[in-house]
Design goal:
By secondary structure, this protein is α/β, with parallel strands linked by helices. The chain contains 17 helices and 9 strands. α4 runs parallel beside α6 and α16 runs antiparallel to α17.
Amino acid sequence: MHIYIYAPFESTGETLKKIARTLSVAPMMDWTDRHCRYLHRQLSGQALLYTEMVTSPALVRGGAMHLLDHDVAEHPVALQLGGSDPVELAKAARMGADVGYDEINLNVGCPSDRVQSGTFGAVLMKHPALVAECVAAMRAEVDVEVTVKCRIGVDDQDPEEVLPEFLARIVGAGCERVTIHARKAWLKGLSPKENREVPPLDYELVHKMKGYFPNLHISVNGGVTSLEQACDFLENGLDGVMVGRAAYHQASDILSAADPIIFGVGEVTTAEQAVHKMLPYIEAHLMAGGRLNQVTRHMLGLFAGRPGARGWRRMLSDDGNKPGAGPELVLAALAQMAQTAQEVEAAQAG
């Protein structure tokens, strides 16, 4: 595995944004909430984190400011917006920038029926001029970076034709960074889950786009399951890699070594260390009236593939929602996992 360093590391300012965007964790509905992001930040101090998609109507018309809640420790962190009204998106972008998000990202990739009905997400691949108008409106409203996450096309579109036109439109509107999910989205006939798995990946097309738009920062998304794979993309000319489900289900596999391997700073953070770092956060969450399983549901995959991982998951899943459950349950699950690992090691040695 090679170390890939985008630029000399600094902890603040413009260089931070350039460094962080080399590796990011995808926005994932119902998963990348503030508790998940806090966990991921304990594993990697540098990777760029994204919120779940927040719709501009919810913020502008609904006043749902709680959807923007985040911890200062999450930075660098980006707000992903869903919407198609340039004026409303500009207002929502301003709301996000005002509470401290480092980036505002426009969702042009989600294929769900609910999102389509609001003319959000992947359906916007059919309307590149509107997307460009939205990007221009947001850029005019905020000083932070405005980015786009898109697909290579939808339905019967020919990605070889529509993707270059789409990128040219948003670049013309001032977008300097895009993340491309290297699959088509089928708006009818496939579920959101199937849209993440069934349409074939076309990494070659994403590389081709980098050749067409050498000054556009292009990250690839879709099917990335290891740091080795991320490094391959970076070393072969792409500017960034966004990891989705693997970063959630096997968070330590992706993020524990990200800082030294991808960013060239710091040391590997073990899953055990991350658990201990989470304890004060869990205490604060419980003191504020929260429940343990709201945090620990994101921690179930920390030890995926290791001896005792099943017991870890079972204890947290079975007991995490019980009244009074707290950090002691997390420590007990950790101790049980360590005991199982010792027993497996002893059996193998014998």
